[in-house]
Design goal:
alpha+beta, about 140 residues, metal-binding, zinc-finger, 5 strands
Length: about 140
């Protein structure tokens, strides 16, 4: 996990990854910890993971981003490499108000990465450039 998240959050993702690999479920103590660290968006993020709403898109050049279909059906692009989501909630509660570490979409991206539950989609470098520049979303949405 990237170093910009607090150490406790990084350790929590590592614990979830280890436990999920061994037991294919997240025990109650880790669910409580998720709720404590990330607040109300933890349950919403887990719901997005359960619904398989997270897709990791990657290109031959090695670029990678996550695209998350939110509860409203809109597609948001998340970058775990720089801790950013394109949704309005991230801009408002994380960047502007500094009330949260992240939004439910980027938390879902981190959780799906830890649990290895994200869908995978290979894109051309040109398609990835369009996504990274904000000009286009995946073609299957």
């Amino acid at each position: 996990m990237p170093s910009f998240l607090p150490t406790v959050a990084e350790q929590l993702f590592k614990d979830i990854q280890k436990t999920y690999q061994e037991k294919t479920k997240i025990p109650d103590d880790l669910l409580i910890a998720l709720r404590f660290v990330f607040g109300s968006c933890a349950l919403q993020a887990l719901d997005l993971v359960d619904q398989r709403s997270v897709t990791c898109v990657s290109s031959p050049s090695g670029r990678r981003a996550y695209q998350v279909i939110g509860g409203s059906g809109l597609l948001y692009t998340c970058y775990t490499s720089c801790h950013y989501c394109s949704c309005p909630a991230f801009a408002y509660t994380v960047l502007r108000r500094n009330e949260s570490l992240l939004c439910k979409h980027i938390l879902a991206a981190y959780l799906s990465q830890a649990m290895e539950l994200s869908q995978q989609e290979a894109l051309s470098d040109q398609q990835m450039s369009s996504i990274l520049s904000g000009r286009a979303a995946r073609t299957d949405t």
